[in-house]
Structure formats: structure tokens, C-alpha cells
Please model this.
Amino acid sequence: MVYKNILMRLWFLPMALIGVCWMPVQAQLYTGSGETVKVTSANELFLLENLNNNGTIDHLTLTGTSAQSLSGTGTLGSLVLNKASGTATIASGRMEISGVLTPTSGTLAADGFLTLKSSATGTARVAEHTNTGTISGTVTVERWINVASRAKQWRTMGFPYSGTMTMNRVSGIAVDYTSGSQSVMYYNEGSDNGAYGSGTGGRNAGYYSLTGATDPIPAGRGVMLWLYGDGNTGGNANRGTMSGTLTMSSSGSLNEDGNAVTIPLAFSSGNTNRGWNLVSNPFASPIDWSHASITKTNIDNAIYRWDPAAASWTVWSGGGASTPSGMNSIVESGGAFFVKANAAGPILTIPQTAKTSSSSNFAHFSRAPGRLELPQERVRTGDATRLAGVRLSVSGQGNPLPNEAYLDLSRQDATAGFEGRYDAESMGRSSGAGVSIRDGQGMGYAIQFDAPIAETGKEKRYYPIHVTSPAKGATTLELWTEGAWNPLNSVSLIDRKEGRTILMKDGRLTYPFTMDELKSADRFQLAINHVKVDAAGAVPGFDVRLLGNPVRSERIDLLLTHPSAQPKNWSVLDNTGRTVGTGGFGEGKTGNVQHRVTVPGMRQPGVYVLKVEMDNGDERSVQVVRN
Model:
């Protein structure tokens, strides 16, 4: 331990600091303003009596059997509560914790003088514990958010408190209660009118806007917050960007008695559009939605959160897949998420064991997608290596960031129908291009799991693709394979409107097109094994045959054969690699088709190369001898 200007009352010996720092300190501990106590081994400073902290202590354990009084305005890096009996009471001042609070045993009475800090360097959390340890009284919880050059947008956020919440216990953010521009909403499942995205009638009627600072937010409910400023710098709720950072502070009694938290869910039997519930992370700690200890009765195993950059929903499903790609199952401290109940009597119970020291690897509170703006540790996602699927991405009009859907064919017990344990519905998108996979009943999926291909390279599958856009114009679909995809299972995109079949090559396909309607429900199909390929991914039936070689003029007669694609362009190169002629094939056809091309630059005798490109990207080259 390193110590400086520390006043110890009673019979505390300095040698206990230096030589035996693991021994309990049976004295009152004082630190002065601006002073720091550093403990060389974490949690080896044990205090049995009172604390007056006006500086910074790296690690401290409160222990013993006597009542303890904590006071002063100071910071604790981490605090362990491990008392056999007696209560540790924060009696005055302001005690800030910047790291981990671990209530192993005993009671910590916060009494309104404890703050869990959040800043650019870290976010405090309460560690997993049993009901032998308790935090009582009012606690202030901070949530730092980087909003520099970030859009004024909605965020899915929540509060970790056991009772009803009101916005008059929140500071650090601006809130608007003006009719028509309210900036705080929670969700009423019974009022859902089915408006989930593009072309469905604007904001869903399930959202309830708060009209005043004392409007109640029921315990366990998440909220949609329109972040637009801190309330002190003249910010307004109009669209635009913000600058700097925000630190939202809220206060209440934490869900930290050591017991699991059951969050009330609704399922309206008389409502066609039913089951959606916006819930809060119940703890002042990240949680892992995939943890087996979470009770999920009559609810789908997927969570949905708002991405303020793309202005669309991110999804993590119980099958381990996500949209966008690579997102993990961690819900941030201070975060909220949608779940969907699928039957009457839904139950969601989240125990202490669902807490994690890891964090979300996607910035739901910030503007930049896929980049961590929360000051917590990144984690790796292991599920992606076990999957085998095709990801679709669309970009175009409106918000330029892409929207994704994912089809997986890796799980033996999956089916083509909706399964709550694996699949996730599409919640639509209104501000940019959107994509979803449709089943036979017209349900849109953000994530769909189906059974693996039974006969590699032979069994054909077709999945309708639904594309939406806020406006007509240039749009691009991209497809790529992920995980342990077998390349002998070919992937094609069928454009019914244009009569084209585009085969994926080298694991990726890009298809630019024009959206001439706001919805294209029947235009596209994702096809598996529609086109047969060999081990190298080439189409066996693709052939370019010259009808006469050598040739005696600038004309080349050729026969093209392709099982699905149409001829697009040709080019001729001389023996130096210089292009001596290019052209198109005009209206093409599949099958065996004879063509003639004229190459004015092929007047001189020599060896040339003819390249033929099909409309799905396939290419073939043949040697031409000019006499």
C-alpha cells in the first residue's frame, strides 16, 4: 500500500499499513481532500470501524460485526461489503464508487449519499451477490454517453430501481413534455396497433408519452428517450447533432437485495398485435441475455434495441445470431430492450447470476454502429463460429447505413416456421432501406433459422426477400455467407422483375438496382442450390465455344452455354494485355445461343484472348488465333 498524509485515530500503527496490509484496521480511517490511498493487492485493506473519506481509496473492504459510519465527500475505486453482522451506513457527504461494489454479506445503507459513477474511463456496477448482502436506501446511478457529433435520436434506456420511477429524479439530460414533442415514452402493450416500420402508419400507438415530470414509469419498464442536450446549454429537441458528452443521473432504491427480479409482462388476448414489452435492465450492471439462469416463460428468446445511428432495430436471437453481424447478447447497464410474449401468462425473471463484467460490443447509446462508446470492456462472440448462414444487407434512399437480415441453416431442430427460441421478427424501418426474410404466411424475419441442407448441392430452397424504402431510387442488395457454410451449396439472388438470376461468387454478391416502389414484396428470392456449382464454386454448365478457330477476319462466331445467366459483355485483348475491342450481347438468352462479335482492332495476325461476362458475374476466357 502507498499512503500519504493519512490521519489514523486511536491506536492504529503505521506498520500495519506497510508490513501487514492484509490485517483488519481496527481504527477510524480518515483521508484528506486530494489524497489517495493505493492498495498494492486488491481488497487487502479491511476496515472494522468508521470511515471519513474526502480523498480517493483504491480498494476497501468493510468487515467486522459492529455498526460502521461512512462520511465525507470522496471516491472509492471498489468497495466490498463483507460484514458478519451490523450495518454500514453512509451517514453524510457523498461517497462515489467508480469501479465495482460487491455486497457479499451485511447491509450497506446508502441513505441518498452513494453514487455509482460513470465517465469516459469506466462505469461502476454492482457485482453478482446473494441475499446475504443488501444495499438499502436511495442510490444515485450515472450513465455516461458520448454524444459528440451524434444525432439527436431515440435511445432505449432503463432504470435499475425496485419502485415506480419519475423523471423528476433524473438529471443531466433535457426533457420535453410539450404536447407533440414529448421526449420520454414507455410502451403500453395493449395499445399496439401493428405499426412497426416502413409504410405501416407512423409511430406505434403503444408508445405512451410522458406529459410531466411526475408521470409514473412502472417498475421494470424501459423507456424511449430522445436525447438532445443536457438541459443547461440551450439545446432543443429539433433534429440535428449534439456536441460533447452527457451524463444522465437518476436515483432510487436498487434491485440489490440479492434476489432475482421478475419484470411484469403483458399479453393482451383480444389484441391482434400483441406481446411486445419494452423492459429495463433491472440491475446497475450489464446482464447477459443468453445466460441459462434467466426464466423466459411464454416469451420469444430474442431482444430488440434501437440503433440511433441507423434509426433501426438491432436484434439478438436465442440461436446466437444477430443483426447487425457480430453483436453480442450483453445488455448495457442503463439499457432497455423489447421482448415479445407469445402466450398468456408470460414470465421474465432475471437473477443475480445473469450479471456480467463484460459489456455490449455495440453502441446502442451512441451514434456510431459497431463501435463501443460505452466505457466498458469488449467481449468476443463465440456463437458465430457455430453458425452457417447467409446475411443480407440493403442500403439506399434515406438513412445511408445498411439494414440487415440473416438466414441460418445450421440447427437440426429448426424449421421453416417461426420458432421463438431461435427466430426474430422484423420490426421494420422507416428512415432508410429495410430488408427481411418472409415465410409462407407473410411473416417478416430479421433472423430466421431453418434446418440444414439435407443433400449438399442438390436440395433446393427458396426464401422470399422483402425490401422496403422510404423513397424510390438507387438501392443495393448485398449477400454473403457466414460461419461454416459449405461452398457446394450455391447461393443465388433471383430478381423476378428483371428476370435475372445472379449467382454468388467467392462468398459474396452485390446487386445494385432501382426501387420503383416503396415495397417490393414479390420481387426477390434468396435461392439455395438453384444453380449447381463444382467444388471451386464454378458453374459446370457454363461454356464458351468458338465456331472456327483460327479465324480469318475480325469476326468471331461463338456458342455460349449457361444454365441460368444471360450473356452481358465481351472484350478482346492482344498478347500484350491491351484491350482491342469491347461490346455487349444485347438481348440475351439462357441455354445454347450462337453469337457473332466484330473486333476492328483484331486486324493483325496473332494470338488474342476473348473474355465473356454473364449478367450474374460469371466469366470465361478463350484463346483466339487470327491468321
Notes: The chain has one helix and 51 strands. The two ends are 91 Å apart (CA to CA).
